[in-house]
Amino acid sequence: MTSNQHPVSRLYFLDWVRILAFFVLILYHVGMYYVTWDWHVKSPFAGTGPEPFMQLSSPWRLGLLFFIAGAGASLMLARQGPSAFLRRRSSRLLLPLLFGMLVIVPPQPYLEVVEKLGYGDGYGTFMRLYLAGYNGFCREDCLVLPTWNHLWFVAYLWVYAVLLAGCVALCGSRFDRLAARAGTLLRGWRIIAIPAALLALARVLLVEHFPTTHALVDDWYNHAMCLAPFLLGALVARVPGFWARLEPVRWQALGIAATGWALLRIWDAAPDGVLAPQAVALLRPAMYAVYALLAWSAMVAACGFARRHLDRDGPARCYLNEAVFPVYIVHQTLIVTMAHSLQPMRLAPGVEAVVLVVLTLTLSFGVFELVRRVRLLRPLFGLAPRWARPVVARPVTAVPGEVAIR
């Protein structure tokens, strides 16, 4: 229920958007091995060639996941109330986060110091340093241990859930009235223009002063780009008929996103000296705004096309909806470990990338098949206890770490 007055049917298309976005994330993290951007391990063949294709998804991928998560969290809050919601969110997010930091994530920083610093004392010695919070692995910056690496998403999602629950508890019915006002405003072209303008303002003001750290306490630009979609999703989830408004603008949103990507590629490819320094200073904020417009337009397009073509249930959705969070937890450690192990074989980069994608998918789903069958492992990977799994899907959508919101 979006409120006591407004029943909603299950939003199957948002489940599919979430599933597909996490699969894009796997491709993106495989790609991180081959680009020049800093990452835990690096291919000997790393170069700039794949970077424009990586940037097809980098502006919007995580914002889309937070947008969907905010919508799901809002529906859970309306159904369960803040106290029950926080108990459930904490058990389903904090336990996998702690387990991930202690068991799943450590091979990533270990192989990072092996490759970047030539560390040779073995994994057991590294783990003692890891658990002790050793800060002596330094190059340009020092590696912060212990770390959550890719599981920063889980930590941020829990913090945002706490903030949303507090907001709903303090506002009461005023939260629904605020959602109704947002729903009145976000119609037609304003669905794209207004959120994009807010994200553009945040990017212009913050991106140069607060580089992304994923460290929670000092990550203000990243918070602006993730928390804003989360809160917007929480509001529009309570607006009856909102999702239907995305279908008529889906093609326009896709065209805007594609145009934004092309403009940013031209901007990045322009040789130094082509533009005068004064022109660069004037155009840079405009490019920041283009980036934000691209990001939000891509989110609108993804939800609009999914509602048009993927608003249906089936065994595949049920299976993948449960699998996606455990797959997310283990996928990056598998990529880092296998990429490092494959280096001596000197496979051609294209072949190696396909091998990494195939092995990451098969092994991740193999882990899920094991986890879903072992009662003690299920909560460590964000799955509901077997006895708590519903036989019939409830009329609400899902969020990361949930089989269904109920």
From TrEMBL:
Domain Acyltransferase as annotated: residue spans: 12-367
Record keywords, A-Z: Acyltransferase, Membrane, Transferase, Transmembrane, Transmembrane helix
Pfam family, one: Acyl_transf_3
Ranges that cross the membrane: 12-35, 60-78, 90-107, 153-172, 184-205, 220-237, 249-267, 287-306, 318-341, 353-371
Single GO molecular function: acyltransferase activity, transferring groups other than amino-acyl groups
Protein name: Acyltransferase family protein
